[in-house]
Design a protein that fits this description.
CATH topology of the largest domain: Glutamine Phosphoribosylpyrophosphate, subunit 1, domain 1
CATH superfamily of the largest domain: Aminohydrolase, N-terminal nucleophile (Ntn) domain
CATH class of the largest domain: Alpha Beta
CATH architecture of the largest domain: 4-Layer Sandwich
Shape: globular
Strand order of the largest sheet: 3-2-4-1-10-9-11-14
Strand content: 15-25%
Number of strands: 26
Bound molecules: fructose -6-phosphate
Distance between the termini: 11 Å
Number of helices: 18
Length: 606
């Protein structure tokens, strides 16, 4: 999704903006642009395509100490240079970069056209630049407020004005925006990744808040022009977190980071003596945890599939009815919100619009929501009543991997905490704590099998269509496996409950349709083996993800063997080879693995 960067200071803004834009590339975009203020006025450059195309088009001597930049993911209007940001007022004096959607843009545009404005783009964002330029307020801050008073919708904007060349004014409503505090410099970004090279001291703006940034600092204020008190906080991030290092792709880097990042996530959160999890961030005591009669998990895409894994863990370990629902559906029905239900929002970015709206709807109706969120200080994290930070570190590849494993572990800990105030025995609790502590080492074992998994992936990549099957604990694993495979390989990959095969999908099985089957060693192994035999009987190629204790169901079956864990935790480990399978299939096919076509990292608009 769109990205914003900005800089005010004593250095040349151009390389800083370009580096920031490159750091935002992972979010997905189709065009990019920058505008810098210099004594000669505003100089702006925009290009369809990659940030490197924009960079190549810049004049060598372009300089300016104040500037804004943008990566655009088209919503209003085609992918053209004219629609790329920064957008300008008619006279070019005011420049605006905008993330989000202005809902009443058409009405505002008609009104501006009727009074003599001419437009050079099809974007909703251009109206904001016109409205600001038309304001007769003396300060840029007041002009921005005048404009925003007429606008409805979601936005993060950054504005420059030739009449006020020492500053950038920014505003936030529903789209993230962060200020970075530097040494006689200020930075602006929609995402921490763009700031990390320059500062770790940041200010998260709230919805309805604005800020002025100059080389000497910042001032935040409300829509009533009242100053708001904001103290910078320090973020725990280094450039190596967002650099590729020895890896060719971020997706592989993030898959291989899991043993270490999970160890970090578990540190201090497990109680081996009492066999439970310490989750202080939930802000819920044992009595509160005991009072919940139901758990409802909300997330989108892969986060929803991990939510299904979480719901099963909670039902198994805590015996509390639990289910997961796509937040994108939940927000559009009229959900019954119950006071004794624990709502759990799960999101890597913490900015997914559908999940954020679902959280607000629950809170509006008086429900209690906690978050399993990766990005600290993100919108959803701040809207929730409490939560478990995932501590996976920045995830740059569009296809989510490590954050999902961290979500599954977060759910295991939540299930433990809910179980141990109910009927889960101390010995079972201790068994699960030991199981969780063993996860990082076992993931290392799976990662060591990469060459074998890569070979299987190269073969699967030749098929146009694939099935992923699993049963009960294995089914959400299969769904996530299919999701990952289709996202990066662009192959049709569909997940089914293994139990449902004979009720229809079996009709499609033949030598041209491979199946990836999830067959853990558990109480359902025999049933899964029966499903495999049905596939083999119809010449369907198979790759089985299983435990070494599961005997070969058929001679010559291609297997990926995963170390055994506690049965309730099996989904965590079974997911890892599926990440590598998707990665290597995409690599075989030569795709842009970290930025799959049509997809964005955080989906902050409808
Ligand atoms: C899958 C994927 C998406 C996200 C979904 C939710 O690889 O990346 O399906 O899981 O868009 O995103 P977050 O977790 O940021 O809310």
């Amino acid at each position: 999704m769109c990205g914003i960067v900005g800089y005010v200071g004593n250095q040349n803004a151009v390389p800083i903006l370009m580096e920031g834009l490159a750091r935002l590339e992972y979010r997905g975009y189709d065009s990019a642009g920058i505008a810098v203020l210099s004594p000669q006025g505003t100089q702006a450059y925009r290009r369809v395509g990659r940030v490197r195309d924009l960079e190549a088009s810049l004049p060598r001597r372009l300089t300016g100490k104040v500037g804004i930049g943008h990566t655009r993911w088209a919503t209003h209007g085609q992918v053209t240079e004219a629609n790329a940001h920064p957008q300008a007022s008619g006279d070019g004096r005011v420049r605006v970069v905008h993330n989000g959607i202005i809902d009443n843009a058409m009405d505002l545009r008609d009104a501006l056209l009727a009074t003599g404005s001419t437009f050079s783009s099809e974007t909703d964002s251009e109206v904001v630049a016109h409205l600001i330029a038309r304001s007769d307020s003396a300060t840029l801050e007041a002009a921005v407020l005048d404009a925003l008073a007429q606008v409805t919708g979601t936005y993060a904007i950054a504005v420059t004005d030739e009449l006020h060349p020492d500053r950038i004014v920014v505003a936030r409503n529903g789209s993230p925006l962060i200020l970075g505090v530097g040494d006689r410099a200020m930075f602006i970004a929609s995402d921490l990744a763009a700031l990390v090279r320059h500062t770790t001291s940041v200010v998260h703006l709230d919805d309805g808040e604005l800020a002025t940034v100059t080389a000497s600092g910042f001032r935040t204020f409300s829509r009533d022009e009242e100053n708001t008190a904001k103290t910078p906080t320090s973020v725990d991030l280094t450039t190596s977190d967002v650099d590729l290092g020895e890896h060719q792709h971020f997706m592989r880097k993030e898959i291989f980071e899991q043993p270490e990042s999970i160890e970090r996530m578990l540190r201090g959160r497990l109680d081996e003596r009492f066999g439970t999890a310490r989750l202080d961030g939930l802000n819920l005591g044992p009595r509160d945890l005991r009072a919940f009669r139901r758990v409802k998990i909300l997330g989108c895409g892969s986060a929803y599939y991990v939510g299904q894994i979480g719901a099963l863990m909670i039902e198994e370990l805590a015996r509390v009815p639990a289910d997961a629902e796509p937040a994108s559906e939940f927000r559009y029905r009229n959900p019954v919100i119950e006071p004794d239900t624990l709502y759990v929002a799960v999101s890597q970015s913490g900015e997914t619009a559908d999940t954020a709206f679902a959280v607000r709807e629950i809170k509006r109706k008086g429900g209690q929501v906690v978050g399993l969120i990766n990005v600290v200080g993100s919108t959803i994290a701040r809207d929730c009543d409490g939560g478990i930070y995932l501590h996976a570190g920045p995830e740059v590849a569009v296809a989510s991997t490590k954050a999902l494993t961290h979500m599954a572990i977060g759910f295991a800990m939540l299930a433990l905490a809910l179980g141990r105030v109910r009927d889960l025995s101390i010995t079972d609790g201790q068994r699960l704590v030991a199981g969780l502590l063993g996860v990082p080492g076992k993931i290392k074992e799976i990662l060591a099998d990469e060459p074998h998994i890569a070979e299987l992936a190269a073969d699967l990549a030749r098929a146009r269509s694939l099935f992923f099957i699993g049963r009960v604990r294995g089914f959400p694993v299969a769904r996530e496996g299919a999701q990952k495979f289709k996202e990066v390989s662009y192959r049709h990959a569909e997940a089914y409950q293994a139990s449902e095969l004979k009720h229809g999908p079996l009709a499609l099985i033949d030598a041209g349709l491979p199946t990836v089957a999830i067959v853990p060693d558990d109480e359902l192994t025999d049933r899964n083996v029966a499903a495999i035999k049905q596939i083999v009987a119809r010449n369907g190629p198979l790759v089985v993800i299983t435990h070494s204790s599961v005997a070969d169901a058929e001679p010559n079956l291609r297997r990926i063997t995963v170390p055994k864990s506690e049965p309730e935790l099996d989904p965590i480990l079974l997911t890892v080879p599926l990440q590598l399978l998707a990665y290597h299939a995409a690599r075989t096919l030569g795709h842009d693995i970290d930025k799959p076509r049509n997809l964005a990292k955080s989906v902050t608009v409808e």
